[in-house]
Task: inverse folding
């Protein structure tokens, strides 16, 4: 098991501001033109109750941007972060935003992570972000954990996706998306998805497939918005 050595502490102290600077440069240079379905988030935030925001692992960059936007509106947000020493870098970043860091992994500490997220929702009224195909994929396959968490806590899941007019895509399992500086961003938010308290395993699976499709629909909406804006810009240039 890896431990926090002096060398790692120094390395992490260097890496953390680099990650912050990278994120802020992308957020600052890119232009978020449209947030389709933003009214769903506004309605939920006004109620003052926690939610379970869901976006794919590849969409961390502007998924996090949108979470911070909701945080400024009054939503208390949290992030599930690996309990390993490497997770300390992200913990410090998340805490610097005033968000809650929930240490755990759906792969290695699944039961404890579920319990901690449940307590965070019910007791602390925090909305924990879930990257629902993480941490190891397959890409765009919604795991049942968020559905069960929604069922137990009665907090609705909120599907979120974004698209960029120009971006790099990594060759990682999640095909991570990094928007290129000064690109145009479109965000799509789906309707909140509520789960009944008492469901059979087959019904839970049915709900999992529904929210998975809702996530894919958000991607399609965001991509269509970007395509429309690019076409409109090209038309103006040609006029």
Result:
């Amino acid at each position: 098991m890896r431990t926090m050595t002096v060398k790692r502490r120094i390395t992490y102290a260097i890496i953390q501001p680099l990650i912050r600077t990278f994120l802020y440069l992308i957020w600052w240079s890119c232009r978020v033109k449209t947030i389709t379905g933003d009214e769903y988030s506004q309605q939920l935030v006004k109620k003052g109750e926690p939610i379970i925001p869901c976006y794919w692992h590849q969409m961390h960059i502007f998924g996090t941007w949108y979470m911070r936007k909701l945080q400024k509106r009054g939503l208390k947000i949290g992030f599930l972060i690996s309990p390993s020493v490497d997770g300390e870098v992200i913990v410090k970043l998340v805490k610097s935003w005033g968000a809650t860091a929930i240490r755990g992994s759906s792969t290695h500490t699944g039961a404890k992570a579920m319990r901690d997220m449940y307590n965070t929702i019910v007791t602390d009224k925090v909305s924990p972000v879930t990257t629902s195909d993480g941490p190891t994929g397959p890409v765009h396959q919604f795991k049942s954990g968020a559905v069960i968490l929604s069922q137990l806590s009665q907090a609705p899941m909120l599907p979120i996706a974004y698209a960029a007019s120009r971006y790099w895509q990594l060759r990682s399992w999640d095909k991570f998306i990094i928007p290129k500086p000064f690109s145009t961003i479109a965000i799509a938010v789906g309707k909140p998805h509520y789960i009944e308290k008492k469901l059979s395993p087959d019904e839970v699976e049915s709900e999992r497939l529904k929210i998975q499709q809702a996530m894919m629909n958000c991607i399609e909406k965001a991509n269509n918005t970007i395509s429309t804006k690019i076409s409109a810009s090209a038309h103006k240039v040609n006029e």
About this structure: The longest helix spans residues 201-238. The chain has a mean pLDDT of 89. The helical segments are 6-29, 38-47, 60-72, 88-96, 110-122, 145-153, 201-238.
